[in-house]
Design the sequence.
């Protein structure tokens, strides 16, 4: 499979600490790639660099063969790169349905001129958006809660809402930061099944996760990060049996 995203020589320092240090890796299209490693290995910073929330000090980031350095997170989202967070960032005072409708990009009604001169087109767009939002909420099992405030959802339901909201952007690459953190076991299995189904629909995933059961169940390829760069890469069974990985997690020399 071709590389969908590539990082080459990326370094990002915060003060005197290198969160990423000459980091080079790639994500292949049509796969789930796991990013694992001990705390402080640079996993979340890596997601932030890909999403455009953090700019690297040096290095290159390419998506579909073109540099995306300098592009804003919104511009990257329009290209198909969508990020979720370890702590769900739902709009708690809006309903579940409104959270999805607000995520739809490039709506004509967002500007004054469009609202004044293109009312019929706006109405048609709103109907399409509402139908898509319903389809996605039904898919993640939240349609029956469409009129509930998002802030009232459980932790697992918020993760499902965040995934559905990401799908409203028609993504090519979804970056998931600990998607099962705080999620009850039955919903963990539901999330795993949803992600596998979405991969079958040509959506690529990069997942930062500490739950090795989830990594084993989901990931086609795994990068183990340590001290801001890949230590070992390969299939789950290969990397987790590598003595260097055991040493990195236990803080012992290999």
Sequence:
């Amino acid at each position: 499979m071709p590389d969908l995203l590539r990082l080459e020589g990326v370094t990002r320092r915060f003060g005197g600490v290198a969160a990423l240090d000459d980091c080079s890796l790639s994500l292949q299209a049509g796969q789930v790639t796991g990013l694992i490693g001990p705390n402080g290995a640079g996993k979340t910073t890596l997601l932030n660099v890909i999403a455009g929330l953090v700019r690297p000090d040096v290095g290159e980031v390419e998506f579909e063969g073109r540099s995306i350095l300098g592009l804003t997170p919104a511009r990257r989202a329009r290209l198909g790169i969508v990020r979720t967070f370890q702590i769900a960032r739902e709009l708690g005072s809006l309903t579940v349905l409104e959270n999805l409708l607000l995520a739809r990009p490039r709506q004509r009604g967002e500007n004054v001129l469009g609202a004044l001169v293109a009312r019929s087109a706006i109405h048609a767009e709103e109907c399409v958006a509402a139908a898509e939002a319903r389809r996605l909420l039904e898919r993640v099992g939240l349609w029956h809660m469409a009129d509930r405030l998002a802030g009232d959802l459980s932790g697992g339901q918020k993760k499902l809402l965040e995934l559905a909201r990401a799908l409203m952007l028609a993504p090519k690459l979804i970056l998931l930061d600990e998607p099962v953190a705080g999620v009850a076991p039955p919903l963990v299995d539901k999330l795993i099944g949803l992600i596998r189904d979405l991969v079958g629909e040509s959506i690529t995933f990069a997942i930062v996760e500490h739950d090795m059961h989830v990594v084993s169940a989901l990931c086609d390829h795994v990068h183990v990060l340590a001290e801001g760069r890949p230590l070992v890469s390969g299939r789950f069974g290969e990397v987790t049996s590598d003595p260097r990985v055991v040493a990195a997690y236990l803080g012992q020399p290999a």
